[in-house]
Specification:
The protein has helices at residues 29-34, 57-75, 101-112, 131-137; strands spanning 7-13, 19-25, 39-46, 80-88, 91-98, 120-126. α2 crosses α3. Helix content is 30%, strand content 32%.
């Protein structure tokens, strides 16, 4: 299975009416159908946003560095795949599907060891049907060109 790096971007709103930017990954049907990535991991970084709920430029750069570090570590052997990134409303959420939460956690700690302690929380759930991904993918109809 080949992992593409094709993404779409869509806009939505949270319950408070703040804009949420959604980055969704394309071309994941083979991974979804393989049945190997049954566990979903959501990493949430809460932050104090500007009046629109978005991070400052400096914080956005730091978040991007964390995202790239994590993605390289998790995807190097397809242990886990980053499928979506939500930004806005005072939080950034990275959604991964993984083979094993235990190894994901070990690799997360190794990958982030070079960063100062980050204000992140982690949520995991069994999601063998990729329901979150399917819900997110429906947002593609509001994609921004």
């Amino acid at each position: 299975m080949r992992l593409s790096n094709v993404w779409f971007t869509a806009l939505s709103e949270n319950e408070s009416g703040q804009m949420i930017t959604i980055a969704g990954r394309e071309e994941l049907t083979e991974f979804r159908n393989s049945g190997k990535l049954k566990e979903r991991v959501e990493i949430t970084w809460a932050y104090k946003g500007n009046q629109k709920g978005m991070p400052s430029d400096e914080l956005a750069e730091q978040m991007e560095a964390v995202q790239e570090t994590l993605r390289k570590a998790m995807e190097k052997d397809k242990l886990s795949i980053l499928t979506a990134v939500y930004t806005g409303g005072g939080e950034k959420i990275w959604v991964y599907y993984t083979r094993t939460v235990r190894v994901f956690g070990e690799r997360l700690n190794e990958a982030l060891a070079s960063f100062e302690l980050l204000p992140i929380s982690i949520y995991t759930e069994l999601d063998p049907e990729w329901e979150e991904y399917q819900d997110m993918y429906e947002m593609k109809q509001w994609a921004v060109d």
